[in-house]
Every structure is written in structure tokens, then in C-alpha cells.
Amino acid sequence: MQLSFFQTLIQKRKPLANDQQWLESLHVDILRRPWQRSISMKVRPSGLVRVTCSKTCKITEIQKFLLSNKSWVEKSQKEFEQLRQSYPKKQFVPGELFLYRGRSIPLVMENIKSKKKPKFYFFEDQLIFTHDLEKYSWEELKNWLREAYKKSGKAHLGEVVRGVSKEMELQPTAISYRSQKTRWGSCSSEGKISLNWKLEVMPLEVARYVVVHELAHLKFQDHSQRFWHLVQHHCPDYRNLKKWLSDYQYEVDFLAKKSDLHL
């Protein structure tokens, strides 16, 4: 249940005027679980407050819990506000910069008169859109942008896998491409590897590290010392690249189906 908020709920309780205004400003997601006994909450990077509670928990209890943690909520939201400013929501205007293989490239509108479906494509350090940007909704542009990155990412990562597989003498039984929120890659016990096509945003050496990491799992299905020794042999700077992935994970947020940073 998405609330934005508490206009109807506050009628059941008369908080102070400042408290009421604060509650009304919140975006809250309530997750009710039958086995949950206590109330807990988490502030998401978008500023959304997710409250987890029991099926029978009263709204007045949730209000009281939120108000008792008001300072913590405000502090968390302020910290995430700085993060959102670092990664503003895309506006889809000519000249806007998009990260592609670690480089910022400008959006160019080609405006070709054609009955073909509009699309984005990459050409000579530019992101090109084939029609008039203003004719389409933000959601349509976002979907076409995802298609462009996915197509490019699958082709590029496939080349990286072929090259690194030859170098490491390790061949996966199959390769798939996904759009996980928190994982860059995985390797199954059957030798199948999966890669996140959003790695197309990242610098080339970062994408290569992920491929080396997953191919190393074909030999060692763990994160033992032997595993990391193999990774380091083929990717000496893996520690910095691994840290880069963690530090700059939100670089790919503009390609997420549902943004973690923007409501």
C-alpha cells in the first residue's frame, strides 16, 4: 500500500501541527507479514520509508513509531538527498550526458522521418535517438533506452566472455543476460554464467573483472584463497575494481525498471 500520506490516518489521532505536517510529507510503504511481531522500518535511497509490521498492527501504532524515530528518518533522508543530487533523474533533452562504458556521452536527436519504431543507438561517442524526443512520454523513452543498453551490453559482454574464456581456458556451458538489482553476475554449479547487461555503463576493466570473477567460479565454486588467487592472476587490480563496483553502484540506476533513487 503506497501512501503519501496520513491525511486519512491522522483523523484517528491528533498529533501536534508540526508532527501532522511531517507525517503528511512522508512517502510510506507498509509491508504486513503474518509472522511479524514487532515494527521495523528502513529508509530507501528514494526517501521512501518502508515499514514492516504484523497483519494486526494499527495505523496509530505505525504513526507513533514513525514519530518516535523522526530524527533518524530525517537524518537518513537528508543523506540520501545528497546521493540523489549526484545522480539526478534523466530528463531526455539534447546534450544530456549518459554514461556508456565508463565515458559520458551526449544525447543527440536525429529526428529521422520514418514509420519505424523510435530507438536509441550508440555511434561515435554519442547516444542518438532517431525521432523527436518531445513526442514521446518519459516512460517510453526510458524503455527504448533500456533496450539500447541491453542490446549493446549483450553483444559487448559476449565478446569479453569469449576473450577471457580463451585466456583462462575456462568455458561456460551457457551465458545469459539479466537485469538484477544487486548482482553483477553469477555462476551455477552446471557451469552456466549470468551477467548483468547494465555493466555496459561501467568502465571496460570493471566489466572484465566481473567476467573473470564468474569464470573463476567454474573452477572454484567458493570464495576461497585459491579462487581469489586465480582472479588476481587474470585481473591484478581486482580489489580496486571490486571497490569501484560498490562505490558507484548507482551509476546504473537510470536503467532500472524501478529506480532506487527517484520516486
Structural features, described:
It is a single chain. By secondary structure, the chain is an alpha/beta fold. It has 2 domains: 2-86; 137-255, Zincin-like, CATH 3.30.2010. 38% of the residues lie in helices and 18% in strands. It is built from 7 helices and 11 strands. Strands 1-2-4-3 form a 4-stranded mixed sheet. The protein has a 4-stranded mixed sheet with strand order 5-6-8-7. Strands 9-11-10 form a 3-stranded mixed sheet, with helices on one face. A hairpin with a 4-residue loop joins strand 7 (120-122) and strand 8. Helix 5 (204-216) packs antiparallel against helix 6 (225-234). The protein is globular and about 65 Å long.
Biggest sheet descriptor: 4 strands, mixed
| Range of helix content | 25-40%
Number of helices: 7
Query: End-to-end span in angstroms?
Result: 14 Å
Short characterization:
The chain has helices at residues 17-25, 59-68, 70-86, 138-168, 204-216, 225-234, 238-247; strands spanning 2-3, 28-33, 40-43, 49-54, 97-100, 103-109, 120-122, 127-129, 174-178, 185-187, 192-196. It has 263 residues and is α/β, with parallel strands linked by helices. The strands form three sheets. A four-stranded mixed beta sheet has the order 1-2-4-3. Strands 5-6-8-7 form a four-stranded mixed beta sheet.
How is the topology of this model organized?
Layout: E1 2-3, H1 17-25, E2 28-33, E3 40-43, E4 49-54, H2 59-68, H3 70-86, E5 97-100, E6 103-109, E7 120-122, E8 127-129, H4 138-168, E9 174-178, E10 185-187, E11 192-196, H5 204-216, H6 225-234, H7 238-247
Parallel strand pairs: 2-4, 6-8, 9-11
Antiparallel strand pairs: 1-2, 3-4, 5-6, 7-8, 10-11
